[in-house]
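Subject: mismatched residue count in predicted assembly?

I count 1064 residues in my input, but I want to confirm that the predicted structure covers every chain. Input:
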Amino acid sequence: MSDRTTGWQANRSGGTTGAEVLVETAAASGVEVCFANPGTTEMPLVSALDSVPGVRAVLGLFEGVCTGAADGYARIAGKPAMTLLHLGPGFANGIANLHNARRAHSPILNVIGDHASWHLPYDAALTSDIVSLARPVSGWVGTAGSAADLARLTAEAVAAANTPPGCGATLIAPADFQQEVLPAPIDVELPPLPRRRQVDSGVIESIAKRLRDGERAVVLLGGPALGERGQLAAARIAAATGATLYSETYPAAAERGGGLPDLDRLPYFPETAIAALADAEIVILAGALEPVAYFGYEGIPSLLAPEDSVAVLSTPEEDGARALQALADALGAPAPTATLSTSAATDTELPGGPLTPQAVGRIVSALLPERAIVSVEGGTCGYPFFTASANAARHTTLTNTGGAIGQGLPAAVGAAIAAPDRKVIALQSDGSAQYTIQALWTMAREQLPVVTLIASNRTYNVLRTELARHGQTEPGPNAAALTSLADPAFDWQGLARGYGVPAARVETGEALRRELARALAEGGPQLIEMAL
Amino acid sequence: MSDRTTGWQANRSGGTTGAEVLVETAAASGVEVCFANPGTTEMPLVSALDSVPGVRAVLGLFEGVCTGAADGYARIAGKPAMTLLHLGPGFANGIANLHNARRAHSPILNVIGDHASWHLPYDAALTSDIVSLARPVSGWVGTAGSAADLARLTAEAVAAANTPPGCGATLIAPADFQQEVLPAPIDVELPPLPRRRQVDSGVIESIAKRLRDGERAVVLLGGPALGERGQLAAARIAAATGATLYSETYPAAAERGGGLPDLDRLPYFPETAIAALADAEIVILAGALEPVAYFGYEGIPSLLAPEDSVAVLSTPEEDGARALQALADALGAPAPTATLSTSAATDTELPGGPLTPQAVGRIVSALLPERAIVSVEGGTCGYPFFTASANAARHTTLTNTGGAIGQGLPAAVGAAIAAPDRKVIALQSDGSAQYTIQALWTMAREQLPVVTLIASNRTYNVLRTELARHGQTEPGPNAAALTSLADPAFDWQGLARGYGVPAARVETGEALRRELARALAEGGPQLIEMAL
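Triage response: the counts match. Full output below for your records.
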C-alpha cells in the first residue's frame, strides 16, 4: 500500500455509498472544493458532500460559472477542483469555460451525474450522448460501470488531470451507482503526484550553441515558464544575448510587476505579431506553443515565426522554468544584481478627466495591492492594463486562454477561493461579462474579495474592428445591431445590486481612483462600471 | 427547375460571397429570422444579413438565448429560424436549449462559422471538434468544403430540419468559404416542403376494433396531435368510448382553454403516472412517445404504461390530428354539439391575500388575453397554472420538453417574434430563470410584448423534493447551500431594470391581478416578481 490511499475504510463502520467513495477518493487526492450546479441525478453526491468531510461546496447559478471557477482555481492553486454538473445539458453549459481550461492546461475533475444505468435505454427526456459532448474538452473521459468503479475511476481521473501539462478529466457517474451501498471497503491506491518532465541537456546545449553563435533570438515564455523563476532566468538570457522576451499572448497565469522583467505579450493581430518576430533567427519556445494566428486572414500566414526559426526549449508539460535556468547557466549569464521589490513603482501623474482605456490601465496598475490577482477578459482595457502593469506591485494576471467568452468573472471566483488572502480584480469588458454574469451572485454569496471593473463602451468593439478588416467600415443596420450593446444600455449598478454586489459608476480618472481604493479597502465583492 | 429555387442569380450583377449564397438560400427556403451571437469567423455572414434582404437579425447576449428563441419561434411559426453562433464554444453555449428543441422536434437551422479551412490544422486557440459537440443535438450535421457547397448544404439543412418530425440541422461554414466570391451563379433547387405521413388505415382499424371490444383506454396526445383538431377528435373518442385523455407531460406546444377539452398532463412523478395509467387495457399514443419515467428511481419501473397496453396510433412524424379524426370516424363518434368559445369562463372568486402557486395559476388563467402564448418553466407555478388554465381563454402553452433548464425566457422571445400580434407570458421559476437571464435584454431591445412572471421562492424546490425522496429530509449544510437561493436573495426588479425591462413585485393575489392587468395593457416587456 502506498502512502497515499483513501482513508475511508478506517473511518466508517457502516456501509458507504458509491457517491461517498467518489467524494472521499477526490478528497484524498487533494480536491478541496466542488463548484456545483447539481440536479436530480446528482443527489447522492450532494448528500455525500455532507457525509464525507473535506470538500467545500460552492453553488453556481449557471454551469459556466462552475467550470470557469474551477479553471481559475486550478491556475492559482495548481491543483484540481471538482465540478458537479447535471447530465449532458448541464455539462454542455460548462463546455465553453472547459474549452478555456483545456487551453490553460488546468487540472479539473468534472463529475456528471447520469441517469441510473438501467434507465438509460429508455431515452428519457434528459438523456443525451454525454461522451460526445465531453471529449472535445476533456483529456480523460470515463463512465462508471459499477459503484466500486467510482473509487478507481475517481483516482484515475484526478491522476489524469494532474499529469502535466494538466487537463480536464470528466467522470460520468450513473445515479444508481452513486446511490448503491457498497458491501465491503475498497482500497484505492492513489498514484503519486506526477511531476513535470525535465528537459534533456542536449536540447539546452544545442540552443545555447546557437545563441553563442550570435543568432538573433526571441524567447517566447508560456505556461509553467511564466512564474518568477522562469522570468528571472529569461531576463538573464536576454541580458547575456540581447534576446527579446515575450509572453505568449494569452497566458493562463503570468506573474508580473514588482521588479520582474517587462515581458510584453506577443501581439494579437497576426501582422503585428509577424513583425515582432520577423528579425529573429531563432524563436525559442519555453513552455509556449509555436505561435499561430488567432484567426486566419486571407493572405496572412497562419504561422507567425519566420520559417525554420522555431526551437523548442520546453513543451508545456516540461519544467520550463528550470530549462530556462539551465540555459542561462549554459550561457554563463550572470545572476541579476538588482533585488526584487514586490511593491509598485510610484506613478505620480495618474491621469484624470474622462476615462480612456490607457488611463484605466495606469490607474488600476498603480492601485494594485501586493499579490493581487487580475482576471482579464476583453480587449478594451486588457491590453492597456498589461502594458501599464509592468511597474505595478507583484501580481498574477489570468487571461482568456481559449477565446471562449465568459471566462473572466468565473475565473475571478475560483481564484478568490483558491487564495482567500489575496485581493482579486476582474478587469472585464461589458459584452464578455454578460455570458456568465451569474458569477456576481456567487461572489456575493461567498463574500469574495473580488472587485469587478466593467469597461463599459456598449459595443462588441472587437467585432467592429473585424468588420472594418472585412471592408465594412460603415456597417449596415443588421451588422450595426449585432455589434452594438447601446440599445438599451445595461444598468450595471442595477445588475450588480440585483445579485447582492455593491456597485458604483465612474466617468473620470479621479473617480476611478477614489472608488477603486474604497472598493479594495472594503473587502467583499464590489463592482465599478467604468464609462468609456 | 422546380418552383422553389433560390432567386439570387436574377437579382445580382456582380459577384456573390459564399455567405450571401447561404443567407439567400436560407431566405428562399423560408427562413425569416436569425437569432445571432456572432464572432470574428461569422463576419461575412453578418455582412450578408445586410446585403441580402429577407432575414431579420436578432441579437442575443448569450447563445442559449439564441437557440432557445429559435426553438420557441419554431413551435409557434412551424418553421425554422436560423441561429448564428461562433465556433465550437459559442455553439456549446447553445447546446442545452438545442437539447430541448430536439425533444420538441423543432426545426432549426444552426449556422456556425469555423476557422478558415486552411487555418484549421494549426489548432489556434478557438479550434475545437465542433462535429462532436453538434451531433448529440442535431438531426443533420454538415461541413462546407467549398463556397459553392454553402448553397447546396443550406438547402439540404433546411430540408432536413423541416422533415417531420423536425430537427435541428447544423451547418459548419468555414470563414474562407463564407468570404469567397463565387465566379458564377449557383442554381439550387429547393426540395418541396415535406408533409407529415398519413397513418395507415389498418392501424386505425385495429385500434378501433379494440375500442369497440370495450377495452379500457387512455389516449396520450403529443406533438402534432395537440392542436385544436386533434384535441376535438380525441374528445369525440372519449365521449364515444369513455377513454381517458392525457397530454404528454411536456408538450412542445399545446392549445388549451376556450372550450377545448380539459386535457391534463400525464403526471411527472412515476408513481403517480403509473397509477394514472394502471387501469388501461390500451394506451393509445397519438403523436406522443411511450411514456417513461423522467428519472429512474430504485424499485420503480421505467415504463409507465401497463405491460402490452401500448398501441401506436401515430408517431411524432405522422399526422396525429388526422389519425385521431379517422379513429373517431371509425368509431362512429358524433361530432361535438357545443360551439367552441375562444374566451375565458369567468372566475368570479379570484384568490386574494398572500400568493400561493394555486392562486397564481388561477389569476394568470383568468387574466390571459385571447390567443396568448404561455411559456412555462419550473414546477412551482407550472403545474398549478396548467390545472387552472382549462377554462382560460384560448391560448398556447409551451413547456420545457428536454429538461435542460433556461428554456422559458428564450422560448418566450422566439414566440413573441414568431407571432407579433399575440401577447406572451413567461411563467418562470426563479432558479430556472437565472440560466438564460440575458433573454430579458433581447425582450427590451426588440420591445417584445412579453410579461415575465417570476415565481420567487428562493430555493431549488425540485431538488429539495428529490433530496427528501433520497431520505434527506433535513439536508446537511452543503446540501442546504446547494439547494437554496436565499443568500443573497435576487433583487428581481434591479435585474430586470438593469436589462431595460420595467418591473414590479407583488405579494398578494390582489396585487398580482392589478400588476398583471397593467403589464398586459402596457405592451412591451414587463417583469413581475411574485413573492411566494
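Residues 47 and 476 of chain A are 54 Å apart (CA to CA). Marking this ticket as 'not a bug'.
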